[in-house]
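Example 3.2
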Amino acid sequence: MSSLARPTNDRMIGGVCAALARRFGTSATTMRVIFLVSCLLPGPQFLLYIALWILFPSEDKARAAW
């Protein structure tokens, strides 16, 4: 499993779904569909997405840290 960093080349909005897809070994499209379907359920999914966008470093910054 790879580290959680938002990729620079596979982003739609913030790259959170692409980062999670890399982490769990699925496609980014699958992760985006799962997120959209979860938004139909009650809960703070959108706020969680924004929090993960802030918490996950960009791939550029993660590389520079190493």
